[in-house]
Amino acid sequence: MSAHETFGTYSGPVHTVTDGPSISPLKAGKTVSTATVGPWKLIAGKLVRQKVAMFAGMVILILYLIGLFAEFLAPSLPSTSRPQYTYAPPQGLSFFVTKPDGSSEFNFHVKGYKVEIEKVALRRTFVVDDTKVVPIGLFVKGPRYELWGLIPMDRHLIGPINPNDPMYLLGADRLGRDVFSRLVYGTRISMSIGLVGVVMSLVLGVVLGSISGFYGGWIDTVIQRVIEVVSAMPTIPLWLGLAAAIPLTWSPVNVYFVITIIVSLLGWTSLAREVRGRFLALRSEDFVTAAVLDGSSEKRLIFRHILPSLTSHILAVVTLAVPTMIVAETSLSFLGIGLKPPVVSWGVLLQDAQNIRTVATAPWLLIWPSLAVIVAVLSFNFFGDGLRDAADPYDN
Amino acid sequence: MTDPAEDVVLSVENLSIDFRLRTHILHAVENVSFDLKRGQTLCLVGESGSGKSVTARSLLQIVDRPGSIVGGRILLRNGGAVTDIARLDPDGQAMRAIRGRRIGLIFQEPMSSLSPVHTIGSQIIEAVRLHSDLDKRAARAKTVELLRQVEIPNPDQMADRYTFEFSGGMRQRAMIAMALAGNPDILIADEPTTALDVTTQAEILDLIKRLQVERGMAMLLITHDMGIVAEVADDVAVMRFGRIVERGPVDAIYHDAQHPYTRQLLASTVKLTRHVEGRLPAVAVASQPLRPILSVRNLGKTFGWHGKTNSLRAVDDANFDLYPGENLGIVGESGSGKTTLGRLILRTVEPTTGSVIYHNKDSSEVEVTSLTKKELRGFHREVRLVFQDPFASLNPRMTVKEVIGDPLVVNGLAKGKVLEERVAELMRLVGLDPMGMERYPHAFSGGQRQRIGIARALALDPRIIIADEATSALDVSIRSQILDLLLDIRQRLNLSFIFISHDISVVRYFCDRVAVMHRGKIVELGEAEQICTAPQEAYTKSLISAVPNPDPRDKRMLHRHRFVAPVL
Known about the structure:
A: 13 helices, 14% strand, elongated, B: 568 residues, 6-stranded mixed β-sheet, globular
């Protein structure tokens, strides 16, 4: 190219970094230059400084790890029922036993149960018997399972040393099943249904939102009207209708997928709006105009210039959308039209707490699954908020 | 004559303000001292980041977090009593009694300083009643009187109008009326005219000066413009990086500056009051009539529907030629259609009427207005745009190498090692160190970013560069550097420039010919020197004469030419 010769070398002054007002470090030590630090590192740096968001992020991570290793973490299988322990109350973990001579000795255990007859109702109830000691241990042999359906194992993180002894850390349900184990298994389903649902909403939302924001005009009008119609629909009756259409003969896995599709069909609209708004704003930015004048194709404009500026925002919106999905699944299952036993999810667990009698005699059936939902939803919200604040590292 | 010490109403002694940031403490203001005297104007002048606004805000204890006053005193005198503002609680009763009543403040941005949901009148009435025990009727009467003082026509009716019904200059007048509501004896004006057009600026400065003299107020005027300083100041304090580097009477500062920074600041301002030396416009040198490189004929753009009353003719019947190697300036105030004209030529905004004829290197003619999307790409390679905002025009998520190299990559002209060498070459050409190639734009200053933008424009070996307010966002010393850089590049690469600006001094320095735009029309087109020294049209005359002259011995604005545009 001819210009290479005409350019030559520039002999004028080279503009170096200007100095400014004097500064002094807060603490002695080196200051990190952000000159060559990329946007993702800046976002991460901003996020790390938000304590609440980081804590929430840790909780989310722990919840997913629990879901991932549910078989190993649960002391028993979710379906193992022992009718002799119906509505057994939670036992506390103890570390020392007092021997008859008064001295105490280390012995990791839970207390056993004894049966009492309630005098008024003439009902059998279990109470914790402080004199019975059920020794428990870590990494004990318990019921056989297949980790992720692949690896046959029989070790559990925690459990009674004698597999036939009762251990109900969070109590038992109507059929004498371990609520703790069921909650652990439920984490897997409930936390993943949020993710799967959100991924589907994400695809729909980003694609339609991008098209709407980038092309504008009548395409935009049509998509926006569709969004309005979809978001105007009353969700619960619609879910009810769609869920009722699922044939009863379908396997639980199929039902699970259909439920995620139903939930995400309504969840994409807010995401699409967010993406469209960002597209509209970015499309009129100078650097996008510059890219147009550089001769960039539409594809390059979208994928090289606009979407990278959006990804962190999308990530934040997605994080905030997950709890909606979790709550939606819980409500559907609670109403009995979502997931059904034998599948275990937090919503299915809450089904057991539907009548007031159960809640009165066995409040742990209501408390623990609700608590799990609350913790998960709050964590996602706090983390998403933090992510949203950190999403744009360039505004000050 | 009274004792000069008695005239001092406010003295700032060794004021220091720190900003505790995450990684370090920024000493925004260090050991600043000055006095404000009754009936006198002190101009605090400095470039962006010099700490001048923070200093002004500290006088009212409204420094934004995380800034705080860490040392020094701000002594407010009231007869014999002296109050140290720096010791007062920012939210306390004592401080609130000072705000508005003793010290009035005018902000830079009249758009955002007035509430959009209340009438102008009700906002001023509120200010009046805060500082006096007048009833509603009396407060309104006072408000109308204040609006009359700031020369708002029909003040009685205008008081019931909303902010959006006021023009920028009118809003600033209303702001001034509000600042005067508490009868303050000190007025702080923080860049009061920076957001305004040059003719409006002249009127507002006139007004502020007149009110100050009439009321005998002490005024602290914050500005970056040495021209304004020369027009209104009695005393000047030059700030740089949080320190006052020089202080003195205005005449001494302008004609006997001691500090090198003051001299540099003045030199860059004065330099822009003349046409660049040692160079003749390309048209004049040519022995035979040159063929233009770009011809604009009857170009027009109407927003809204044709023929309807609410349609706006942003550009109306524009005609001009651009010759090879020429710098053509397009100058006008906000809303004159100059930016739209630039966009019409590039067709990022589609013209309604007229034609743009581009003469190719092989001397074939191209009708730009009828090019297809694909052909337009070829045109965009030869006619490039440099943007105003050096921050918004660079993708923050791309390194400098990617930004400058993007046009080359897109057009498939270079990649890998060749691309890197070419980017390095372009960076050297615009005076940047190629070592900074891997950095992101946020690591560069405004001037450096603008250089990056210029390098990107040059990457495709263009023939014409349209610079849309390319130096408006820059400090004056950086501005002249960038202009010199553009002139240097023009010489080396034989470019033509269309230079769009509201700043007459910049156009005068940089351009060979100038087109003056007013309400979408080109009202005058001629040699830059002729337009700037002997304008023909009434509008041009008023525009040129409103430009502040950076010489206190020749205050041009006071006897300026006034132009009243006919009502449309």
